[in-house]
Amino acid sequence: MAQMDRADGHRYFEGLAVAHVLGGLDDSEGRVFRAHLLDCADCRARVGELRAIAHDLADVERDEHRVRAAQVIETKRRESDDADDDLEEAPPATRVSRFTVLGGLLFLVGLSLWNFTLHGEMTQLETDNRNLVRAGVVRETGTSWRSAITDASVQGVVKDDGTDFVVSVDGLDPEQRYGLYVKDESGTTAYRFYFGPSEEGRLYRLFALPDDADRLLISDPEDTGDSPAVPGSEPSGDTVFEASRP
Ligand SMILES: [Zn+2]
Fold first, then answer.
1. Distance from residue 57's CA to the centre of ligand 1 (Å)
2. 2 has pLDDT over 50
3. How far is the CA of 36 from the centre of ligand 1 (A)?
4. Is the separation of the CB atoms in 208 and 163 below 8 Å?
């Protein structure tokens, strides 16, 4: 969760990076962004890349100026040499060059926005990947909960390492919605999670372990008139899987 909040908050700075390079930030935004740059290596790298592209574009523009200036001199010389000569006029060249620079800037902005989108997606993928790796570690090394299988077709394992717990359950109905409940010793629901299993009828997921977690149950909720039936804040209907913490 904290990871996702960070990504959302960071998007604001990513948006400022382009404006910063193009000199479009006002004083207060500029100060905020420069302060952020001091402790964000990602944004420093990004600003460096954008500066390099902007610098290349400026070089292209300077070269075009030089060519145009040479053309003007050449045109003047020829005009004085031969007034009847049919020469290309300078204005079209100016227009073309302005479009080139504008196109370059639009390309720069588009490229960086696309980069930021990719960057955001990568951050999410990295988070998902870390969670999967962590789930694998807890699955390998964690303490097993005693499972009481109440539905013959459903099999599962719950393990925790004191910080997180991983639930791996097979044989669920992919069409069905289920409620997962963690109860504490007093029987109060400490955590709940509603889910639809994967196409293979599986739930494999890492959760933060509530402090006084004692028992986990997965229920196939009572028919509520919705299709499929929606799980409620407390278990209802059939308990299809149950495990207790040793
Ligand atoms: Zn940053």
1. 24
2. no
3. 6
4. yes
Per-residue tokens: 17: 């990076």
Report the separation in Å between the CA atom of 33 and the middle of ligand 1, taken as the mean of its atom positions: 9
Give 142 or 65, the one with higher predicted confidence: 142
- Cα(60) to centroid(ligand 1), Å: 29
pLDDT(3) > 80: no
Per the prediction, the chain carries an average pLDDT of 81
DSSP letter assigned to residue 59: H
Which helix H or strand E contains 240, and what residues bound it?
strand 238-244
Judged by phi (left if over 0) then psi (alpha if -120 to 50, else beta), residue 196 lies in: beta
Bridge partners (DSSP) listed for residue 157:
168
Pick the CATH number of 144-244 from 1.10.10, 2.60.40, 2.60.120, 1.10.150: 2.60.40
